[in-house]
Amino acid sequence: MREIGVETYVPDASVITNGVLKMIVVEGRIKGTLIILRELIDYFESLAKSNRSLGILGLDEMRFVRTACSSRGVPVEVVSAGRRAEDIDALVRWYALDTGATLITSSKTQQLASEALGVKVLYVEPPRSRLTTLERFFNDKTMSIHLKEGAPPYAKQGRPGKWRLVQLSENPLSREEIEAIADEILEVARTDPEAVIEIERPNSIIIQLNLYRIIIARPPMSDGWEITAVKPLVRPKLEDYVLPEKLMKRLEERAEGILIAGAPGMGKTTFAQALADYYKRKNKVVKTIESPRDMHLPPEITQYSKTYATSDELHDILLLSRPDYTVFDELRTDNDFKLYVDLRLAGIGMIGVIHATSPIDALQRFIGRIDLGMIPSVIDTVLFLEEGEVRKVYDVSMSVKLPTGLKEADLARPVVEVRDFLSGQLEYEMYTFGEQTVVVPVKQAVGGDFEAMVRKAILSLLPSAEVTFDGSIVTVVVPKEEARSTRKLKRRLANIERKYGVIISLRMI
């Protein structure tokens, strides 16, 4: 039975998960009975059963608190709140009001709400934790570290496009070691006000913690615990890329539909970050859409998260706030492309970051998502990065003309022209032919060697075929008996069409 006149304390979830309750018990700051709500235990248990890291962390901390209370003679009671509430913090708050207990919290919101009700509050600032173990794997050349249960730790060292994978130790990491590092990361994420848990799913979590982007995966999604941490080595300005004066002028005066393309790890996001900072220094209003938010930008640039907002919400916010430029890192889903297109057509300058193995691939990702004729209205400049440097720049425009290689005047049509920006040389044409959209490399369309390659590829399938060319249209005449498996043959011919950028017309006699 509780003694009359003995002060009682009731903690909320915040002081349990960030270790504050354990700390003040050890320091002897609890001068009475500690009340643990049964509903709080049930809350953490339900999270743990859903494989949420917060639940496991909460239950572990409550176990440690009990041990600390026992060793220091602090009485502990587990009671029910006696009422229902959807929010666990509200339930703790109402219990403290009903019983006159002192509420222990590290949440400013909880403190203000409780004091507004007249509840006595013990507010304790959460201690700042450090990534002591994780930081031990990094040095001034480390781009990322890769920790996997049952495998030695590895690190990528170097710079974008020029790095090597280095084994950091001969000893494989055990599950206990990986879990301990993960617990340290989560503790810092819960207590550091600058940390953001971008995505938390039952078996994975993505955290942006100051300079570090951290991905934690665990079974059953992965075959073992895994931690990947990425840290940018440098924060270059746009001027550090030593871009041609013509391109700098284009970026400053005309480019408003920009795609930054490249393979993973080639420095796309770093360049986009430099470009955003450049526009900010040119007195432009700049915002970003990221997931996770791993760009390091001046506070004047607002960074929005796709994780915490719908496409419609982002659309409305950006449309009404009217920034000069919005950086979209990265374009992945149909909704991402739709949002990019809608904002660009509304007159907002857009900078999209997209994975692509060649610069033309970045443009082709838009085919089928918007009408071909709208592409130049949405995208005017494509920047392709390789090994951290801008290796190719395309200018995208529209004209009505006879496509290169075609001879009959009545085949003139709207054509999207893709030119090398620096030389002005036409490299690709994109146009519709019937119901098909084709992307034709112009150098190939006018070359005799190109026709020989296409002819050879077709004759390898149909040795008796007659092959004739009219620009990028290839007519193939073949005896019926040689084209018995029509479906399989058409599939292989379609592969040739995609590879060489031609249209094959198959006739059987």
Task: Describe the protein's architecture and organization.
The protein is an alpha/beta fold and 509 residues long. The chain folds into four domains: 8-123, Rossmann fold (3-Layer(aba) Sandwich); 132-230, Beta-Lactamase, CATH 3.30.450.90; 238-438, P-loop containing nucleotide triphosphate hydrolases (Rossmann fold, 3-Layer(aba) Sandwich); 447-508, 2-Layer Sandwich (Alpha-Beta Plaits). Helix content is 34%, strand content 29%. It has 17 helices and 25 strands. A ten-stranded mixed β-sheet has the order 15-14-16-17-13-18-19-20-21-22, sandwiched between helices. Strands 8-7-6-12-11-10-9 form a seven-stranded antiparallel β-sheet, with helices on one face. The protein has a five-stranded parallel β-sheet with strand order 3-2-1-4-5. Helix 2 runs parallel beside helix 4 (53-71) and helix 16 (448-461) runs antiparallel to helix 17 (486-500). It starts with 7 loop residues before the first strand and ends with a strand.
Structural class given helices, strands, pairing?
alpha/beta
Q: Give the integer mean of the pLDDT values.
A: 87
> What profile does the largest beta sheet have?
10 strands, mixed
Unreliable segments of 5+ consecutive residues:
none
Give the strand tally.
25
Q: Number of helical runs?
A: 17
Write down the CATH class of the largest domain: Alpha Beta
Sum up the structure in keywords:
509 residues, alpha/beta, Rossmann fold, 4 domains, ten-stranded mixed β-sheet, seven-stranded antiparallel β-sheet, 17 helices, 34% helix
